[in-house]
Design brief:
Layout lengths: L20 H14 L13 H11 L5 H15 L7 H19 L7 H12 L9 H10 L16 H10 L6 H14 L4 H9 L9 H14 L8 H13 L4 H15 L6 H20 L1 H13 L6 H10 L6 H24 L5 H23 L9 H13 L1 H4 L13 H15 L4 H12 L4 H17 L1 H5 L2 H8 L7 H11 L7 H14 L5 H19 L8 H4 L6 H8 L8 H10 L5 H17 L4 H12 L17 E4 L2 E4 L3 H13 L22 H27 L2 H4 L9 H32 L2 H27 L1 H4 L12 H8 L6 H4 L5 H20 L1 H6 L3 H29 L9 H5 L6 H11 L6 H6 L5 H27 L5 H7 L16 H6 L5 H23 L3 H15 L4 H17 L5 H14 L4 H15 L26 H35 L11 H20 L9 H24 L13 H31 L6 H33 L20 H6 L2 H7 L6 H16 L1 H5 L12 H7 L8 H10 L2
Antiparallel strand pairs: 1-2
Helix pairs in contact: 1-3, 2-3, 2-4, 3-5, 4-6, 6-7, 6-8, 7-8, 10-12, 11-12, 11-13, 12-14, 12-15, 13-14, 13-15, 15-16, 15-17, 16-17, 16-18, 17-20, 18-20, 20-22, 21-22, 22-25, 24-26, 25-27, 26-27, 27-30, 27-31, 31-33, 32-34, 33-34, 33-36, 36-37, 36-41, 37-43, 41-43, 41-45, 43-47, 45-47, ...
Length: 1422
């Protein structure tokens, strides 16, 4: 060493003795101050070894870190930035190699000094000799496995630049191969989490990587992310997003981030993980703002694979939607993801041939989507407040899309929410956890409720009611906004305004102010000019009183009311309903004012009064008080007539209209009286009570007089209807100045009177139920008289319905049909309830009475015949028939109306309480009316005399079975599915074992294979009840009733498992084989029922067998089916009468199968897209959902081909032929999609088509395509022969729309087969027919009329002639013009392709490929 301050001699003399390391450090310090050229010793290669030795010597010092770092930095500072001498570059390489060796062998510590030194080396790496770059890279790569601590990865800063220089160097031999080898070694080594973090930080510098290695690099990064510390994830995501913004595999980066955080790490539900995800969301949001293309990649990921939706993907979309340009697209993608999940499950559940495991997967996927969305909403409370506005918007978007989803029934299916409930849960959760969102949610509710769409508004109103019930105290803060919404009460749709009041009523228990404001709004609405507004107002008044009658267990003002701290008994009285008057006295005057409103308002009020009495019986007295003076206008006790029905009508603009619905008034009074408590004798147990206190006995007596007066009035009306003629009641109506107005007034009076008769019948039936045997006879006669009177009134209404605009049904329908028409005209939903005055309990009693009367008539038939009292006997039979017809019509209407009434309506149990008990009586009635087999001959003899009785009997049986079907349909939709079926099983009927089951094994067959009690009951019902009844009706030629029984079998059979449904289908198919049925409608129902219930794949096998039998029953030279045998050998149901109906049923069933295939093909395409973008294959080697579904679709399509093939040889009628052509075109379109999915995109490996697909192609060409050409040729030949027949032009026009589309779809399908053949070298078109071998051409209807006989001969000439080829070319051009329409028919063909070839295939075609060229291409590859 030299002394300090002395210059080494070697600085000026290269041949001087060697210098020391301290000399180099001082020289570097001095040169840093003064500058200058590099020292001469650096240019001498002889000194390089000494310089390197100093580096090794310093590493053995006591503090090697600072010693080595100081020397290396000093030496590097002496080297110029751009050295022109190779010796300096060689020195730099040697120093770097030596330093890396010291670093790897850990002779120097890995600390800040080493980091500073490596950073300085990185600045000079470009000056290193190219031949030394591989050695440097090799040393760094070999040490990757030892990177454990963050300081161990300092050398990685040199690696990207070093590899980049190698890739650009021309001096290194095989540099490209070395680069690839080095990258492979990096990707193959085991990455620690420290190494992974550092590699990601350098990812931007690996821009020289090819596409495949970038993908492998990202795979390794995302696979190792689950082992990385949580605090490192945000920085990793940030570095990846920065690299993606620079063009480093944007799609893979976005997909990896969302899938890693959403799927692989999504199970870590901790607060730290949620905060990490929130930070990453902010990074994504910022990156999308800086580079919008990243937002496009986020949307593209979800569009191509909707199953990629997870909680983090949902959060990313919500975050990206905050960027204005992506808001609409993100919302649309999220909505489609939810809708697709629901639709897929709904279609998978109804698809019979889909395996149960796939159905379960779609169910779990739908549940996963619901959980994903709700988790994203819940996690928004952890540092993600910026997505709250997006969640609000998305929640309301789902509520507005309820009609689009069509997800009815999903709520009761495996606990799925459905779109409306999911949207409400989103907003409800947000309302709960985010105070800042509440104002915006209420404002959005106001905005959407006032929208012009009532259906959307109704859903939002339901949500407001949900908020009121779950969050009453937070909702009190927004009472002012709710008041502003109520100001639009008169401008809303009547249904929406009523529902809004109902939704807000629970909040009135906490806010007197809101209650008073609602009353004020309703009072104003009662004076509005619009009828619908007044209807909504009276509904609101009734709901307001009903809500006030509910117990008040809690309330915001309850403490103000009890300032004196009342006793426990007084507090008990406060919370029980009925102990105080509440709002009823205050609003009673408003109810009285309704008595002077329109008839519709009065109807609603009368129905509402019954509700009030049901909730609080003590209000009956006041109700009678204000109804009594009003009723005296129409019932006068002193007059001879009694009823003043003419005063119920008024003349408005020259037309008669109802001013007072007297029947509704009497129904209200009657039901309130029936609700009165009674003693054992049936009399009133006590006098009616009234609200308030009374010190006068006269007041109490007056209130009791009101009820007694109404009771007496009803009794007088009963006597009046029974003993007076209609002429006496309606006599005063005829004395009018205008004959037309008088006749119209007469009809309306009859209409009101028919309702009054129903009210009286309801009372008589209730009295009959509790009367003694002696009194029952008189009551039964009274019922018969009332029904006869009703029928006479009803005939008068029906005769003039067309002249006066009263819309009615058939002559057997009850008179209340008029009100059902009003429902569709925009009236209030509950209008239909006010005209149905017969309760189900009364219908049940009347039904039993009718059966008793009929049984008595039948038992007295012989006695009456011997006594020659035919007149009295026929009168009794006619009376019982009328009674049955009336009761069954009323029963049918009540069953249909029960589905429309709200389940929360207090009168539901009063009107429809015993609906489920009607099953057994209706079935008994059917069995009672059925003619006995041994009396068939006597029936034929008496046909001339009793033809009308027979027709009435048939009509009664028909009505009874229709009611039976509706009742079973209602019961199977309810909670107690088997109550009606079990009641019917208890009836003692003549049970016969099915023909296809041995009698000794019948009981075993009945319950075998059925696991639960519900299945046993359904199966026993079909075996013991339906099958015997079916046989009897079929043998008696009751064909209309047989069709209804087919509906019942289908309704019940759909609830059975596959093995039980198969047994029922076998029974139906045995009927098709053995029964010679000539009725076309019955044959169509039976064929469709058998095919529908038969589980796959046997269903299409049965369809193929039927079609083959139909083909064998006709000959090829027939032009119609008249020449076929009378009954088929194998299927007796096929005959000339039923041929067209059976063919139509089979084609209709095949069309439903093709619809399922279309959905499955779309799902198959989605699975293919997922496979293309999946990073890794299934390690377990199990079949994916796509491969399983693909195989099933191919097998199902093959079965469709075999089922359609026999139709190609038939001579079908025009409707069936057109149906077949459209069906074939639709099927070929799906085949084209399947073929397209087998073609790999550009850049991907092409796999051979599966054997199932090859078999499908072969069968399609041989059994469908070739015969289809012959079928079309035969059709058009028949057209040419019958061109002058009437209607042939219209048929040609229809078929000219079908045939071009069919040919286009066939050629489009074969085009993809050609592409697949070229790609796989497997000839798929060896069985295809040449285009020049077509035996038809597309006819022009204008030219057909102008053609002469020679033209026909020319059209049927040689197909291979030039003229025919030109004709084929013209038809192909025409087909090309229709390509746009054909391609846009299905959603699958319209989706964007993933490759250039697919995008090119989706473009519109100007011309079609020549068929002769198609076959030449296929022949070359054989």
């Amino acid at each position: 060493m030299t002394t300090v301050g002395a210059e080494p001699q070697c600085l000026h003399n290269p041949n001087a003795p060697p210098f020391t390391d301290d000399d180099i450090i001082r020289l570097a310090q001095k040169q840093c101050q003064t500058g200058g050229s590099p020292p001469p010793f650096l240019l001498s290669p002889d000194s390089h070894q000494s310089l390197i030795s100093y580096l090794h010597a310093r590493s053995t010092s006591s503090s090697p870190s600072s010693a080595v770092s100081e020397y290396a930095v000093s030496l590097l500072s002496l080297i110029p930035p751009s050295p022109h001498s190779p010796s300096i570059s060689s020195l730099l390489s040697s120093i770097l190699l030596a330093y890396i060796d010291l670093y790897n062998t850990r002779k120097i510590p890995h600390d800040s000094n080493s980091l500073k030194t490596i950073q300085l080396f990185a600045l000079n790496i470009q000056n290193v000799l190219d031949r030394d770059l591989p050695s440097i890279s090799e040393l760094i790569i070999s040490n990757l496995a030892r990177v454990v601590e963050p300081d161990d990865a300092q050398l990685l800063k040199l690696l990207p630049r070093c590899l980049e220089l190698i890739s650009k160097s021309k001096e290194i031999e095989e540099g490209e191969e070395y680069l690839n080898s080095a990258l492979d070694r990096i990707l193959m080594c085991n990455w620690s989490k420290v190494l992974l973090v550092n590699m990601v930080s350098l990812i931007r510098e690996f821009s020289f990587m090819d596409k495949n290695r970038r993908r492998e690099f990202l795979e390794k990064v995302f696979d190792g992310m689950k082992s990385v510390d949580l605090q490192d994830i945000p920085s990793l995501a940030y570095q990846l997003l920065v690299a993606a913004s620079k063009g480093f595999s944007k799609r893979e980066v976005i997909e990896g981030i969302v899938m890693s955080l959403g799927s692989k790490m999504g199970s870590k539900v901790t607060s730290t993980m949620r905060q990490v995800e929130g930070t990453v969301l902010l990074h994504v949001n910022f990156a999308v703002k800086q580079d919008p293309s990243l937002g496009q990649e986020v949307l593209a990921l979800l569009k191509s694979d909707l199953t990629a939706l997870n909680h983090f993907t949902m959060a990313v979309l919500l975050s990206v939607s905050r960027v204005r340009r992506f808001n609409e697209s993100c919302m649309r993608v999220m909505k489609m993801a939810v809708l697709s999940a629901y639709r897929d499950y709904k279609l998978a559940r109804t698809c019979k041939w889909l395996p149960e495991d796939l159905k379960e997967k779609y169910l779990q996927q739908a549940k996963m989507v619901e959980k994903t969305v709700l988790r994203a909403v819940n996690d928004s409370n952890y540092g993600r407040e910026h997505v709250v506005p997006s969640i609000v918007e998305f929640g309301f978007l789902l509520l507005k899309s309820v009609d689009e989803a069509n997800s009815k029934g999903l709520e009761d299916s495996h606990h799925l929410m459905g779109l409306d409930i999911l949207g409400m849960e989103i907003l409800k959760t947000l309302f709960k956890i985010h105070d800042m969102s509440r104002t915006e949610i209420i404002e959005q509710c106001r905005f959407h409720i006032l929208s012009p769409s009532p259906e959307q508004s109704k859903t939002i109103v339901r949500f407001v009611g949900l908020l009121v019930l779950n969050f009453p105290y937070p909702m009190l803060e927004h009472v002012s906004r709710l008041k502003e919404l109520l100001d639009y009460f008169t401008f809303m749709h009547s249904t929406i305004s009523t529902c809004l009041i109902t939704a807000l009523l629970p909040l009135t228990k906490f806010s007197r102010d809101l209650q008073d404001y609602i009353i004020l709004v309703v009072r104003k609405a009662m004076f509005n000019r619009e009828d619908t507004v007044r209807v909504a107002a009276i509904n609101a008044v009734i709901e307001l009183i009903l809500a006030d009658k509910q117990p008040k267990y809690d309330g915001l003002f309850s403490f103000q009311e009890s300032s004196s701290q009342a006793s426990c008994s007084q507090q008990q009285d406060e919370i029980l309903p009925g102990n105080n008057a509440g709002l009823f006295p205050e609003l009673c005057g408003l109810l009285q004012r309704c008595l002077y409103q329109q008839a519709k308002v009065k109807e609603i009020m009368y129905h509402g009064l019954v509700k009030l009495v049901l909730v609080d019986p003590l209000v009956a007295g006041p109700i009678f008080e204000f109804l009594l003076p009003h009723s005296l206008r129409f019932f006068q006790e002193d007059s001879g007539v009694g009823l003043n029905i003419s005063s119920c009508l008024k003349l408005v603009n020259g037309k008669i209209c109802v001013d007072e619905p007297l029947d509704c008034l009497l129904s209200c009074i009657s039901r309130i009286l029936l609700l009165q408590p009674r003693d054992r004798n049936g009399n009133a147990a006590e006098k009616w009570a009234c609200f308030g206190f009374s010190l006068s006995q006269e007041n109490e007596a007056g209130k009791a007089i009101s009820a007694d007066s109404f009771s007496c009035s009803l009794q007088k009306i009963r006597k009046l209807l029974r003993h007076r003629k209609m002429e006496d009641i309606f006599g005063e109506v005829r004395d009018t100045s205008s004959e037309s107005v008088g006749e119209q007034k007469q009809q309306y009076c009859a209409f009101i009177m028919s309702g009054i008769i129903q009210v009286v019948l309801n009372n008589v039936a209730a009295e009959l139920k509790m009367s003694s045997d002696a009194k029952k006879v008189d009551l039964e006669r009274e019922i018969v008289d009332l029904v006869n009177l009703y029928e006479s009134l009803h005939k008068g209404i029906c005769t003039s319905k067309q002249g006066h605009g009263i819309r009615r049904g058939n002559s057997k329908a009850i008179a209340s049909d008029l009100v059902l028409h009003d429902i569709g005209s925009g009236h209030v939903k509950l209008t239909h309830d006010y005209r149905f005055f017969l309760g189900v309990s009364s219908i049940h009693q009347l039904l039993l009475t009718a059966m008793n009367l009929h049984s008595c008539n039948c038992s007295n038939d012989a006695t009456a015949s011997q006594g020659h009292s035919h007149c009295s006997q026929s009168n009794l039979l006619l009376s019982s028939t009328k009674l049955m017809s009336f009761i069954l019509n009323a029963c049918l209407r009540q069953m249909k109306s029960s589905l429309l009434m709200d389940r929360s309506d207090p009168t539901r149990n009063l009107i429809y309480g015993e609906t489920m008990k009607l099953g057994a009586p209706i079935l008994k009635l059917v069995l009672l009316l059925m003619p006995e087999p041994n009396l068939a001959g006597d029936q034929a003899k008496k046909e001339a005399k009793g033809r009308k009785d027979v027709e009435d009997r048939k009509d009664s049986i028909h009505l009874a079975i229709v009611c039976f079907r509706e009742l079973i349909n209602i019961s199977l939709k309810g909670p107690e599915q088997n109550c009606v079926l079990e009641d019917c099983l208890s009836i003692s009927t003549s049970v016969h074992a099915p023909e296809h089951v041995d009698s000794e094994d019948y009981e075993h067959h009945l319950v075998s294979g059925t696991e639960d009690q519900n299945g046993k009951s359904k199966m026993a019902f079909l075996q013991k009840v339906i099958k015997p009844l079916f046989s009897e009706l079929l043998s008696a030629s009751y064909f209309r009733e047989v069709q209804i029984l087919c509906d019942i079998v289908l309704i019940v059979g759909d609830k059975l498992p596959n093995e039980r449904r198969s047994s029922i289908a076998d029974w139906v198919i045995s009927i098709c084989k053995n029964s010679r049925i000539a009725d076309a409608k019955v044959a169509k129902c039976l064929v469709m029922l058998g095919l529908t219930l038969k589980p796959p794949p046997d269903d299409l096998l049965v369809a193929e067998a039927m079609a083959t039998q139909m083909l064998n029953s006709t000959t090829s030279d027939e032009t119609c089916i008249s020449g076929m045998s009378e009954f088929s050998d194998r299927y007796s149901i096929i005959n000339p009468t039923t041929f067209a109906a059976a063919a139509s049923s089979i084609l209709q069933f095949i069309e439903s199968v093709i619809s399922d295939v279309q959905w499955a093909t779309a799902k198959l395409k989605t699975c293919c897209i997922i496979t293309k973008h999946t990073f890794s294959l299934d390690q377990a080697g199990e079949k994916s959902r796509g491969s399983v579904l693909e195989e099933i679709v191919y097998l199902r399509a093959e079965a469709v081909v075999k089922a359609l093939s026999p139709f190609m040889g038939m001579c079908l009628k025009d409707p069936q032929a057109e149906q077949l052509l459209r069906l074939a075109a639709r099927f070929y379109k799906q085949l084209a999609q399947m073929s397209k999915l087998c073609i790999s995109p550009k850049g991907c490996k092409q796999f051979l088509p599966t054997l199932a697909f090859q078999k499908l192609v072969e069968i399609t060409c041989r059994q469908l395509t070739v015969p289809l050409y012959n079928f079309v040729a035969q059709m058009q030949q028949n057209q040419l022969e019958n061109e002058r027949r009437k209607g042939v032009m219209n048929k040609i026009k229809r078929e000219n729309r079908c045939i071009p589309d069919l040919i286009f779809q066939i050629e489009d399908y074969e085009k993809y087969l050609i592409t697949l053949t070229k790609a796989t070298k497997v000839n798929l078109l060896r069985h295809a027919k040449r285009s020049t071998a077509r035996d038809f051409r597309i006819l022009d209807p204008k030219k057909v009329a102008e053609k002469d006989a020679p033209a026909h001969g020319e059209a049927g000439g040689n197909n291979s002639s030039p003229g025919q080829n030109e004709l084929c070319e013209r038809s192909e051009d025409d087909e090309g013009n229709n390509s746009d329409n054909a391609e846009s028919d299905g959603p699958v063909a319209a989706e964007a392709s993933e490759s250039d070839d697919e995008a090119e295939d989706l473009a519109p075609k100007a011309k079609r490929v020549k068929r002769n060229r198609v076959v030449e291409d296929s022949d070359e590859e054989v």
